[in-house]
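User:
I would dearly like some help making sense of a protein record. Take your time, and here it is.
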Amino acid sequence: MHAARPRLSVVITLLVAIVAPAVAATPTTQPDPRKILRDALANGQLRISGTGEQFCWHAASSASVFLDAYEAYGNPEWLAAATEYYAFYIAKLQKDPDGYEGWIGDPIGSEGRQLSTDAVVGDAILCEPLARFAWIVLKKDPHLQARFGAVAEQYVRLVTRICWEKWNHRGCYYQDASGWGSYHTYPKLVDLEANAWVDAPSRLISDNLNKHYAITHVLLRLWRITDNEQYKQRVKAVYGRAKTMWRYYPEDDRIVWNFWMPHGPYDMNGRAPASWVAVHPSRAGYQAGEVADWVEVYDSGLVFTAEDLRRIVRTNHWMMPAGGRGWRNADGTTDAGTLWGALARFDDGILAEVERQLNAQDTDRNRIAMAYLKNVTEKNLGFQRLYCPDESKAETVDVPLQPGRNIVMSVIIPDSVELVNDAPVQLACQTRTAGELQIDLLDEAGQVVLGRLHTIQVGDGAPYNAPFFDGTNPATGEKTPGRYTVRWTLGGESRTQPVYVVQGVRRERTGPADLAAGERILERFEGELDARWRLEQCEVTTEKARSGKHSLKVDSQAVLTFGRTADLPVRITLYVWDAGAKKGTGSANGPGWGVATALGDTFAVRQMWRPYLAGDREYMWLNTGENQWFNPHPSGVVRKEGWNKWVFDFTNPDAVRITGNDQPVQRLLPAFTPGGAVALQLFAGDSGGPLYVDDVLVERRR
């Protein structure tokens, strides 16, 4: 049986080895396993990064080197050292309020927060080596079971509980009508002192794609150990979706893919997705790790074909320095490129570059990587699948390649129109060239055009569009259940996705009724709050107050909902505290306040600082439907420390008026100025906060 392919260890080694030439690494001099263990445990970041996702990334950086070394040298002392290292980070596990273990700590990028969480990717990257260890002992080299069998079985039970049972129990796996799967975050945080969940609905979003692949990579290894059919089907659903999202460049016969993609209904904020869509502009290592995962899926006989890998090889060659330029990323938008070392056995050029980089410096890690290259990789050159040598038994996923230079995202969210709930779907896309975007409905086979759904003139930036489709067949004017095809066309390129029109199961509408004509909501925060509020990490406080003794302090977000499916002609008055924060020409996002529309866009005024904005002097306005939070506009309203009166007046949708301290917001763009609203939105930022709000009045026109 062939050796397992490591996920990130070779990639990490290459990233640290590109330095001035020194003594070449040699595969014959075996480092001391105990020294490698001591060095790994001495990593200072393991002491200062808490016990959450950030800790997991640091701990994972050394977790696979012991397994690489065992497979390179055949010395079981490397496995003994591995068990000690794994015992170190397993000891950091804590239990969530639902009783499941996890590496619980600060949300990544939010150090020092009161509330904690565990993360799909944190669990995955520390369970991947545990599953690989178990596969080596229980399947690849069963003679090791006398010494390591018991601990390997323990790892299987722990990994199954953490990576399969826990996230399924929490409902964090989403599968669409086509059968493609993804993982999303858990919309709760943990109060460790109280051992209780705290609702955090604003956290709900699909994970970055590398995180989907990481946890499913664990399931791939569990499948090879247990033959559990459920694991295999999950692998095919998640990694198969990867192929539907590929962006094909036919002139080079290569593929490109984005860092994040929307999938579930929670991933759309009006016309734009909840996160940015692109090849990562600066961290090339993400794609290197994803490629390593895909190679192991291929070797396991699932999803990918040899031709898929050849196209990925061509992409990596296209990224390499040439003609006087340096590395570039996969679509050429930035210079963030790197070697995809997991492809070494499929391509002589990549193999030679891996060896050249390892020879740049003689370190213990490079010696191990070189030994792995010589003793494992080079003994398995070519496209024969390592764990499924009979190609007839491979279960590949066959989806059509679709061009992705002009249309870099095309997805239907959700992909089923439920007629009984009058629930239209969004035909979401992102484009990269100017022209006429045509969206057509075709039959199930994608051969017969049934009619035009939308025609949109798009610019040459990277705009998002997400028009609705309610299930109506343009050819008949009827909403007939069935499977159809949606086609986006721009600049000579077309991409397609299936869409399903189904009766569905009726769901009761929840939440408050629409504010009636002439009705008003007055909130002074002096008593019980109106039931329409939804608060996330907010509290009524005496720290600031305008007219009474209390105000609302917003550390995350607050929403006051007064409408459902149609924008209402309301006038909203509120008072917002400006703490007078100054950031000069730095970049920061402060508190914001504004409205949500029935489409889902947020129109807001916000304290924001950029080198090109005068954030110390004036407030900014923006609409997430334009380009998420990336297009702030100067409002012309001068900032004032203390309480500021803001009015959002939609009582005349044809003459919307928004003012701050009676100064009108200037330079509003008609396409991104709403004509009404369904909710008031308040949110904190990373600077200038928290946000204090008082004396909120919402009035609907009679």
Residues 1-23 have pLDDT under 50 and may be disordered.
